[in-house]
From TrEMBL:
One of its GO terms (cellular component) is membrane. It comes from Alteromonas alba. The keyword Signal applies. Residues 413-569 form the Lcl C-terminal domain. Keywords: Signal. This is Lcl C-terminal domain-containing protein. Pfam families: K319L-like_PKD, Lcl_C. The keyword Membrane does not apply. Residues 1-30 form the signal peptide. InterPro entries: Ig-like_fold, KIAA0319-like, Lcl_C. PANTHER family: FI19480P1.
Amino acid sequence: MKGIMSLLPLRTRHLMMRAALLTLALLLSACGGGLSKDDSDEAFAVNAGRDRAAAEQSEVSLSAQVSFPSGAVVYNWSSTPALTITHDDTSIATASLTTPVVTADTQYVVTVSATDSAGQSASDSFTLTVTPDNLPPTAIITLSDWPDLPPGTYPAGVSLTFDGRNSSDSDGTSSEEISAWAWQQTAGDDVLTGIETDQSTLVIDTPISDTRQTLTFSLMVTDDEGAEDTTTHSVTVLSMSETPPEVDAGIDQALFGGERIVLAGTATSTVPAAAPIATLWTYSGDAAPQIINPNTADTYAIAPLVDSATTLDFYLTGEDRFGNEVTDHLRVLVRPFPVRVLNDTGMTQQATNTTLSATQQNAFPGQDGQRGADALAHNNVLEKAGRGENGFDFTKLNANGDEEDVDAPQFSCVRDNVTGLVWEVKTTDGGLRDLDHRYSWYAEENNGGAPGNLNGTNTSCTLASCNTSAYIDAVNSAGLCGFYDWRLPNHQELMSLVHFGRTALPRIDTQYFPNTGADSAATLWYWTVQPSADGVSNDAAQNAWAIDFISGVDNFLNKSDAVSIRLVRAGR
């Protein structure tokens, strides 16, 4: 047979061999045998594609191909260094990515891994080279317009800030998109000498000149990849004779009629030759305030007394030596002064950081001395039923409770026309109401759990028991000023008599409350009716509140202490 085969033509021999192999394969298959895939050279594989290059910030499509898979295939794309790859469906071979911003050619290894349903895995990679494609930055200059002047026009002698911080680089690779700034002046009087010109902002002072002129500035910005952009900005600077003064009338206010309106105005010029600036305050509205020194920018006005809320407009006009005139204004709401039910403090002085002064202190507004009834009295606009220092309003009463003249030397009681309270006046006759008598605190009811002492330490009086309750009974029995309802004052009532504005002692209007005590005394304590929560023992208040008419402060004293009394009655 071999000899016969060797005699046949080559093509015939090949065909016969292929037929024989096919017959053998069929026979093996019929017997349950055969060649498996593992027995051949055909293996599962994946191909990621060829190496390639792409420009920065461009989209790149990814596609893989597999050979000899068994069933479905799951794909996974990754890169080194890491890139964001969009691959929503891992059952398909395609994906995409957007190249990052780079400053030089940068290589990334992109890898695809594939796994088929038979558990076979394969992977392949290609190199992606990302090339830079730098876009130039954008230079931007911003500058705020000057109030009350046309856009782009500025006074002489003022500070301007040219701002380049809005410049940007659309493809910057860092948080600092712009890496360099360079300012230059290309027109006008030189204003850049000694000024830093490599910052994001440029601060200059406009020149003071006899003529109007134009200043032009350029800004060149450089991004972190070396690209540049330049822009310019021009401004018009007024001559010194055209530059208007700067006038500020101050802030709007709201207050009561009779109080002081703060007119803390200013009028200046950025041009020294424009001084002095002449100023004038005027007003408009349905009521007439009293302006103190209207030709002074920093002054004050006394608000008019009004029956309803009234709006006033105050105008401050400044005129410089060149005849330039500027007016600014503020608005003031004046309300009717309220009906008083409490006394003011008596304070009319005003404080600075270091001193007390009787003059208006516009730099320290809103003080006690600028507001309230005391200020109205100081401004001579407070209406009173009687008399009294500062905001206090008292009327003298005789032994029968009738009103006495303001100059009456003898009187027994005083009516406070603000609070409606009627007060006992002390004497120096050694009798029941003598100023030198001292009493312990005692009350059978409303005593905080402890009635006090019938005769405390160092008490002295004309009574058998020197305590507050015995004194109240004695005064009511005597019918002082024709009244029989005298009592100890509460804390607020007694404090309403303290005159904090007095420089002399004691701190009370001594024309209406003589014989309060010696001005040389260390303290002049007077009892109130209120027990104190301080000093509680076994749930009983051992102390009571008192007011000192030397210092003007309150404090709690032991109920056994010897303290003065000033009784009160009535009230609103």
